[in-house]
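[Automated response] Your request has been received and processed.

Submitted sequence:
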Amino acid sequence: MLDLAELEQLVAFSDSGTLSKVAEQFHISTPSITRSMQNLEECFGVPLFNRSKNKIELNETGKFAVEHARRLLYETEQTLRQVREFDRKQRTIVIKSCAPAPLWTLMHRLSEKCPGITISSSICQNEEVLEAWADGSCDIAILPFPVDGGRCKTKEFMRENLFVCVPPDHELAKHRELTFEEINGFNFLLRSELGFWDTLCRRKMPASKFLVQSDEFTFNELVACSSLPCFVTDYVSNQRGFDFGRVKIPLADEEAKVTFYIMIGEAVHRFPYLCP
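Generated structure:
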């Protein structure tokens, strides 16, 4: 049977032209390379070299064998890569979520139910989540609306409500509830990677400016030290202890009261104990 290591040495000989260079490349002795070439000739059952007293070179059959060896080595490498990639996917759950809170909730559940599983997650806009779900590049999709048909039924996952968060002496603090129309024009602190929440706020508040912070520590320091309003949800307030002595005022708009839906594809079959 052909030995892949010997085929690699044959290809290396074709590229370098001498057995000594091949031996140097593979960190073995020249006699070992000579035996490898002899073994290949025995496997093929035909001579692959023209040999003279001080020289060895490939004959036409040897050159033909080299080209097939290159293809075989390439196909072997591709096969190894594809099998490893297949195995990685069997142990990986890819999640696309439209917002942070449902992703955090799901990640917590998965970490308990799926030990040893790699979780790849990202927060995207609704359109990106839908696209990933449609082309099969994610196993789980989370959206703020149900999606009928396709790979599975959509299930309700969790609810989240948006609040305006201001210092007690801020002019908005006197309100028992607010609307996007009433806060449009106020400048807000905003975290990055909020998914559809970011899009919603910008769409409903075109007259406002947003100071976006990607670093949680910096954002929290600004919330603690500045008078700028920010947003918080009931999930973040309850689960993550977001307070800073601020007043939380609910938004009355229906768009600020969101039900998230989850779609689970092939992950159900690979992990039958996984459920939303």
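Summary generated for your ticket: The first helix runs from residue 4 to 16. The chain has a mean pLDDT of 89.
If you did not submit this request, please reply to this message.
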